[in-house]
Amino acid sequence: MATSSEQAKKLQLFLQWLQVNGAELRGCEIKYCNESKGFGIYSSNDVPHDSGILLVVPLDLAITPMRVIEDPLIGPECRAMMEEGEVDDRFLMMLFLTVERLRRNSSWKPYLDMLPTEFGNPLWFTDADLVELKGTTLHRATEVQKKNLKTLFDEKVKKLVEKLLVIDGNPESEVRFEDFLWANSIFWTRALNIPLPRSYVFLQTEQGGASSNASGASTNHASTEKLAKVLQINNSTSQVSVAESTSQEGETIWIEGLVPGIDFCNHDLKAAATWEVDSTGSSTGVPFSMYLLSAGNILLEGEKEITISYGNKGNEELLYLYGFVIKDNTDDYLMIHYPTEAIQDMPFSEQKLQLLEAQKGELRCLLPRSLLNNGFFPESTLPEGTNEKHTASQFNFSWSGHRKMPSYSSKLVFPEQFLTALRTITMKENELYQVSSLLEELVGSGGERQPSETEVRTAIWEACGDSGALQLLVDLLNMKMMELEEGSGTEGNDAELLKNVHITEIESAGRNGCVSMSRNRWASIVYRQGQKQLTRRFIREAEHALQLALSEEN
Fold it and tell me: With a threshold of 0.70, does the pTM exceed it?
C-alpha cells in the first residue's frame, strides 16, 4: 500500500501531465479519498458559479478505439485484427492498457500510476471470498468470465503483447495474466460513453493535418474516417452505438472510452455532476473537449465530493463491474431462467421448440424489484422519488370467448414474454392440438401466411391459461432459493452476519464489540441477502397468483 507521500507525488505528476496535455481544473481538485475508493474529485472554493464547468479535458487525451488504431506501436496489429473481425473495440482498449502498463518509458505513466492496482469485483476475489457468492448468478458468471479471459490471454494476448514490447525495445518485460486482468477491470470500471460529434470522428481530408497526441506521436486525423470504417462505427453490427440526427452535421456518435481526469469521479445516484462534449469550444473555450458540469440542483460548497451516476444498476451489476454494492438497493433485480437443454428431453419437444421460436420466447427473465410495487404484496413504503413502474402486459381478448380474462391480471408482475414461454414448455398434448387448430383457423389450412408473434402467444394463452406456467414458475423460484441457501443459509442468517460489522480491507480481529469483516465478504453477503429477499417475495407473488389461477380455471 502506497504511503501518503507516495500518493501525493503520484498526484502531483498526474496534475502536471494533465496540464501539459491541455486539461484544465477550473472548479475542482483531485484528492485521495481512502483505500477503498482511491482518488476522487472534490469541489474547490473557486467553483465558477456562472458556468458550472469544473474540469475540461481535450478529446485527444481520451483512450478510444480510434486512438488505439492510430497508435504507432500497436495500431498496425490492431487494425489488421479488426479488419479480419478477430476482436472488438473493447478488446483494443484493454490491449492498449496492457501494453502501456508494461512499457518502460510510456508517456501514459503519470495517468496509469494513478489507477488502482486491485479491485473489489469478483474477478479479483480470493477463493475464500468467492465462496460467499456460491449459489448466486454472479458466482457462475465470475467462474466463466475468468476462464474466458485466461483463454483469451493464453491464445492471443500474451504473444501479441510480447511481440509489441520487443518492437518497442522492452524484450525483458514479463507479460502476466494479472496485467491483462488489470486492463480488463480498468476498462469496465472507468469507461464512459462519450457522445462524439461526427465532425470530430469523420474529419475530411481537406480539414485534416497532423496533431500531437498524448504519447507525443503525430496523428493524422485525415485517416480517421477510414479508421472509423474499420471499426464499423456507422454499421449496426458494431458494438459502438450511433445516434442519428436530422442533419449529418449534428450527428452524435457514442463511443466507449477512458477520459483521464473525469474518470476519477465516483458514483452516487444523486450525482453532483454530469459530463458533456463541447465540439466548438463555445462552452469551454476548448474545441473538441469533454467537460464536467455541475448538476443544476446540487450546491457545491467547500470540499464536497463531485460524483457522477453510473446509472440505475442492481447490486449484481455493481459488484460484477465496479466492485461495490448499495444496501437496500431499489434497483436490484433477480434473474431466473429455464435451461433450453431440458426441453429436449420432454414430450413433444420439437413442436414446443418451434412454437418458442415462432413467438421469440424468452427463457431468461430479469425481475426488477420495482415490479413488486404493482403486485399483490407491494412494499409498504417506497423510497422518495420512486416513480418508475414496471407492468406486465396481458392479453385482453379471447378468440373463442371460452377463456375469460383472469381477475388478477392487473396484479400479475411477471413479464408476459417469459410466462408465455413457460406456458409453451408445460403444454399437454391436447393443448398443442388446440393451439395448432387456432392458428390454422387464423392463417388458413394452406398456410397462406405465417402467424405473428402476438397471434402465437394469444393462441397459447387461450389453450393453456396460466396455472401450468405459474406452477413451473413457482418451482423455478423455489429451486433458485434452494441454490442460494445451500451454502450460506437463510436470509435471516445473512442479516445476523451483517449486524455490528466493522468493514476492513482485509479480514482481521474485531474491535469495540464489532465483528471485523473484509469489504469483499461484506459486499458478497449484502448482494446474496438481497437476492434471497427478492426470491422470497417473488415466490409469494407467484404462489398467490397460482392459487387464484387454479381457482378461476376450475
Answer: yes
